[in-house]
Amino acid sequence: MLEVRDLEVAFGPVAPLSGVNFSINKGETLGIVGESGSGKSLTAMSVMGLLPLSGGRITAGSIMFDGQDLTKLKEPAYRKLRGGRIGLITQNPMTSLDPLQKIGGQVDAVAMLHLGMTPKQARARTVEILGTLRIPEPATICNRYPHQMSGGMKQRIVIAMALAADPDVLVADEPTTALDVTVQAQIMRLLHDLVKDRDLALVLITHDMSVVAQTCDKVVVMYAGRAIEHGPVEAIFDAPQHPYTQALINCIPKGLSEDEHLTGIPGTVPTVLNYPDGCPFHPRCTRAQDICAVERPAVVPFGSGGAACHFAGAAP
Amino acid sequence: MTSITGTAARALAGFGSTSIGRAFGSWLGKIAGGFLVLLLLTAIFAPWITPFDYAAQDLTNGNAPPGWPHLLGTDQFGRDVLSRVIYGARTSLSVSATAIAISITVGMTLGAAAGYIGGMFERAVMTVVDLTWSFPDILIALIFVAIIGPGLTSTTFAIAIAYLAQFTRLTRAQIVRLKRETFIEATVNLGAKPRHILLRHLLPNAITPVIVVGMLAIGDGIVLEATLGFFGLGAQPPTPSWGAMMSSGTAQLFLSPWVIIFPGVVVAVTVIAVNLFGDELIRALDIKDRIRGA
Amino acid sequence: MTNKLEVRNLSKQFISPGGPFSKARAMHAVNDVSFDLPTGRVIGVVGESGCGKSTLARLILRLIEPTTGSLSFDGDDLLAQPPAAMRRLRADMQMVFQDPYSAIDPRFTVGRAVMEPFEVQGRKPAGTHAEEIDRLLTMVGLNPGLANSFPHQISGGQKQRVGIARALALRPSLLVLDEPTASLDVSVQAQIISLLEELRDDLGLTYLFISHDLSLVRYFCDEILVMYLGRVVEALPDTSLPARHPYTKTLMDSTFAPDPKQRRVIAPLEGEVPSPFDLPPGCAFAERCPHATDICRRETPTLAKIDGHAVACHHPL
Question: B192 at the C interface (CB within 8 A)?
Fold first, then answer.
């Protein structure tokens, strides 16, 4: 359905993204996981064609969507896709809704724009979608303003807007970061059900490995603008090949055993202005050797995944 | 144990080394800033660069048009306009700067106290301040001068009082904003006394927008001084002041327009330069949001 | 074991003043909270937004005055202390704040920030200033060369370490940590937690650890207090115990494990945390609780101990 190959992105002289590869099919959930500055949000923006808004451009690679290369698409055609066949769920529901417009109108607008519905038809569709998202009394809610709703409710409205045009792909950029844990569980359950019921492809961008473990089928791990490992979720957690993935999983507290001991990864995540040469992780890697500082590792295939490491497959 | 002046000096030093540099960075900042530096140097070195004694009259050469040796002409008494304009810079700048300095000192004290203490005290101070805020600064200055009498001292105090409200409001707004910052809570948590919090944290962080607004206020102060001077309420003869020069020049408007034009142009350019540089400073320091509400 | 902290019936009420269009309303950010913090232990306070955990942290340090209740620190009545005595006592009870970006005065260098406690309390360090700065920065794993750097020049994790160094400068015995790693990346969070563990062992500290992350609390703490809308609904004396309060159970179920083999099919909790203003009578959780009955809507349950494990519920699990 959606396949990204060798994507590279630049903002002026700075190249925050280089070498991103992933693919996703209908009914699948792909998790793109990384810490701050890893380039995961940029990847979402690239797929949505929103880079020019902040001054960026795609310098290499392709984004194949249903046979079309989106990198070659002009803005008017992109606009038809965006919000239509590819929906975006943004990070902060507090700011993604127009505070001056009633909820109903905002969701109606999507169906009217992308599906050519009349206001009446759009409203009926809106009420139906809000019901699917388990929003109580959808007809009444349509007449409320965003500030009258809680965070979790607002996020459901944002999801409704993404669904209104009957998309094939949903890109969710940290959809639950700003929400409480119990609300996060609700929203993730909702998204899971949507993927199953509507055969959607969901690209879930997050920094939380636990969320990935709970909800995703495939995983892409990003670090310093590169996809340094990818694979099915069980393989990633059972037998991570890249030292960063291994270290990252070890950083997560589970709190279930007395013997557990967190140490963290020494050093800090590099900013886009000082990506290290060679392998971007080598300054913090316990297994780094001379070659790691010089030569950027290519992705070594492993099972149905792969890791970009000179020593992928070695025991941790 | 450092004093308030030490704190202020350190704050200014830190501020001066980074942000003014950045304001000079843009071309507009360079031009405006350059002009102001030029003006300042002119005022400082006035005794050495004026071609003539500003008070020297030469009745045989009254109303001479610009040329040589009087580059900007002479007024009705034969006094060199250029020299008077240069000395006028001294008057204007020193009066305005002194006035604003007084205004900032008193205003910051009042504003910091109001913001920090809060409650009824804050309400009382801000009500009085807001009342004066609603008067045009010229009116306040005129009232003050009418009570005390004309002259440089009263002009200075009149200008200081006219802008007091502005600095009090601005400082109070900063203090109220800063009080909510985590590092203030952290300092309270260390067991700090209010004096420590005010002098070490609140005032040093509040001072930056105040200094910048002070700069812009100097521009306003120059206009105010010129206005008072125009009405004969400012510097008394023979001390030259741009306003007084323009005033006396009106009688001779068609005879020797240069007597009005040159001081007028200098006032306008100075105020424009001050405003441009001040804007560049605000941009360079990125404190637009802190100044807006005050 | 003596108690470092004894909290009894602590409450904080906030009043939202009315206007021409609305009545004044009151809410309890913290409502009748009681617990003991034994010396040398680590107690975690866990809860979602609006539960009052941050307010509780500030009440304990008397950064906010409680409306009712009592607070004793090392046996001394904290609320009876006059301002000067309270200021001196603060040296012994410090806080590490949630947001490292605003916890340090942006105009202070790192060195000045960690030495400020000495200046404030009028004490002198054992050695010279420079030696003390070195000692403090090394203790938190920072390069002493950072002493002349400004906060905006160092990373979030480094800023948080500076905050910890400052908090420990005067060797307090109690450290209250208000979500100290919430704004940090996972890899940095693990570093900071590891540091805090070391420091606790080396310096014999007592911690009160506030967080919304249940896994982290389970890992780091000895006991757990679960808060909901200002009240403690459950107090677990051991982090491996199962939940007895329905809310705690939901919290545990909603906390995903980093292991795809442990996926859960959860029946997520419906609704969201109600507004703390105009709470209905009875148990605050009743409207969302799958086990609620009549009595739950009438009578507020009190915290009752069963084998050392306290729950505030009419139908504990």
Answer: yes
